[in-house]
Amino acid sequence: MFGKILNTFGTKMLVAVINLAIAILISQVLGDSGKGVQSLVLTNISFILIFSEIVCGASLVYLTSRHSFSKLWLPSIIWAFLMAAFMGLIISFLTPGLDFLLAVHTAILSFVSSFANIHFRVLIGREEVKKANANTLLQPFMLLMTLAVYYLLLGKRDIYGYVLGLYVAYLSSSMLGFFQLREEYKKLQFYPLRDYGDTLKALFKYGFLNQTGHFVQFFNLRLNYYLLNAYVDTAHVGVYSNSVSLAESIWIISNSIALVQYGRISNSTDTEYNQKLTLNLCKLCFVVSLVAVAVLSLLPSSLYQFIFGPDFGDMSHIIRLLVPGVLCYSIFLILGHYYSGSGRYFMNTLAALCGLMVTLLGGFVLVPRMATTGAAITASLAYSLNAVFLLFCFLRESRFRPKDFMLTPSELKEYFVEIKNHYLK
What we know:
Mean pLDDT: 83
Number of strands: 0
Order of helices and strands: HHHHHHHHHHHHHHH
Structural class: mainly alpha
Largest sheet: none
């Protein structure tokens, strides 16, 4: 399992480096306003995916070991198409500054992304983590290559280079996933509609509970983008989005651990083992994230201006405000996957609702008055409250004590040995 975590972490680090290169390229070519538009496009795609993944999202991981691929595939594809078509009509109201053509592309891209995600979720549900990681790495790589050709070789300067890049990235990932699951596709069967009843019931049951939490959490994480766009301008969205992306890169650690943890717990019925595993992973995650957060906090504003362009000097201030919440949220991700892996998605929803209260209050009060500073303070407080709520619930359920979350020297030594053995074998 530790080897899978390291493999996932290595993949996500490469993805982070590529995403950083993408952010730098777009920021340098399009400036803060263009970066703001790009962030809103990607945020709108993420918004549609929340509804699409009611059926073709994380519930697939939980149900892959319990239902056949054929029974899961068709409902997922149909639902993804319906949500892309319907929600594509809605998103134009969220971002009135974006033209209609971008809204159409956003809807289509959300469907293609859902198709790629179906393959990814099935692979995770089968604990084929290396295959899933290869799929994860392909998307940003193809996006970066397309952007390099469009902006650097062809010399164009518009947002549609990014849209084209997303098409190439999502389609490439979809095709790779199709190849990785080719044996399942060879055996793909279509049944009378009544035979999908039990599968549909399970998909909606677990998916609705999980995505309700994701819907609430989406606004915890991204409502500030829309508020900045509405109350200030897209330039502030661009600067804030770059700051958030760098701060949230700390979650590479948590997500790498949680991805493997989720697959393991969803295939286990041993509650004591799952709790002990979660405790150990929380300790590991916190220590490594703390080091990463400390480094990120020390970077000066001049470095951000050099990397992203002269419009992005405020990033260092925003990141320092985000860091406390980002560190707390890294623990939330581990605890949240413990509850998701055991099918109790409502716990994540309750935690997200706690954070949403802060987001709504702080967002509508602080963002109009303090712009990006208000957005960062609001986000950090919301992230922290998410973590505190789940930590309290986990301690009550597991009977662990707060001191049990301290990493001991023997555990630290054990992790170093594991890392050395993995990379030097």
